Amino acid sequence: MKTVSGLFDTYDQASEAVRALKASGIPDGDVSMVASNAEGRYKSDDAEGAAEGAGAGAGIGAAVGGAGGLLTGLGLMAIPGVGPVVAAGWLAATAAGMAAGAVAGGAVGGIVGALTDSGVPEEDAHVYAEGVRRGGTLVTARVADGDVAQAEAILKRSNWVDLEDRRSAYREEGWSRFDETLDPYSPTEVEEQRTRYANR
């Protein structure tokens, strides 16, 4: 099995990618999504607990509304440095476990650790994590070796972010790697990021 990932500037683009991946025959359990929830688009009974856990680990609560059966297990969690996210699938569960078990200042956990553990190069994992921090949505699928090209084509057709272009854009701003000790982006900052990249 190989891991194929794509970063999207909007939740709608990522949702389209997830639907297409599932339609191509990739099982629900092999597709994951982690989306910024900085604007509070999704709520849960445990949303407050999830937000409070942002500094210490991850709180999980079932997301209410808006999921539309896209992926099973859609829920809310907080990831240090990223803030509140809506997440579903195997990557989300792995990231939650790593975030909850991480000691501040310790080994890489959260999204970066989950991605690298699944075979994504660390340099790319940092860009993906930063992209979610800035309001993006990450879609990741586990696929058979022979299905990698098809899965990547699906993600690209759904308007995925060109990772090299985004890495270069971040570096032009002085960014070098995802830092989970930084404050999450505010809703206003997320909107500024989305506007900036919508014009590229």
UniProtKB/TrEMBL annotation:
Residues 191-200 have a biased composition (Basic and acidic residues). Residues 179-200 are annotated as: Disordered. It comes from the Bacteria. PANTHER family: MEMBRANE PROTEIN, MEMBRANE PROTEIN-RELATED. This is General stress protein 17M-like domain-containing protein. It comes from Ensifer oleiphilus.
